[in-house]
Amino acid sequence: MSMLGWAIVAGLFCTVPYLFVSWRKKRRPLLPHGIEAFMSGIGLLGGLKIPWLAINGEIQQLISTKAMGVAPNISSEDVVYFAIRGFALSWLSIETIWKRCLD
Predict the structure, then answer these.
(1) By Cβ atoms counted within 10 A, which residue in 50, 71, 77, 103 is the most buried?
(2) Exposed/middle/buried for 74, CB within 10 Å: 0-12, 13-18, 19+?
(3) SS3 state of residue 70
(4) How many Å is the Cα radius of gyration of the chain?
(5) Cβ count near 96 (within 10 Å)
(6) How far apart are CA 77 and CA 2, in angstroms?
(7) What is the torsion angle, in degrees rounded to the nearest 10, for the CA atoms of residue 24, residue 27, residue 33 and residue 37?
(8) How many helices (H) and strands (E) does the chain have?
(9) To the nearest 5 percent, what fractions of the chain are helix, strand and coil?
(10) What are the tens digits of pLDDT across the range 36-90?
């Protein structure tokens, strides 16, 4: 399955709990909250993929500028920063999903 397919599955996987909790609390689910939960699922997937790419060294290929013919050097310190940013994105996504389910 492509990355887009996984992103859609992750978004739906995170929207279903919001819909279930709304149904259990006998509230009507709101479209903006559903969209927020869906996008948080995609953010969660992206937040996990960024550290994976940084640790495997594939991030170098993604950010190289082929038009200029130069590939920036990424140090091991930069890899740590990419990993931390990815985990922070995952944390924010989980927090948003959690907030939507508890509201």
Answers:
(1) 50
(2) middle
(3) strand
(4) 17
(5) 19
(6) 30
(7) 10
(8) 4, 0
(9) 80, 0, 20
(10) 999 999 998 888 888 888 888 777 777 665 555 666 677 778 888 888 999 999 9
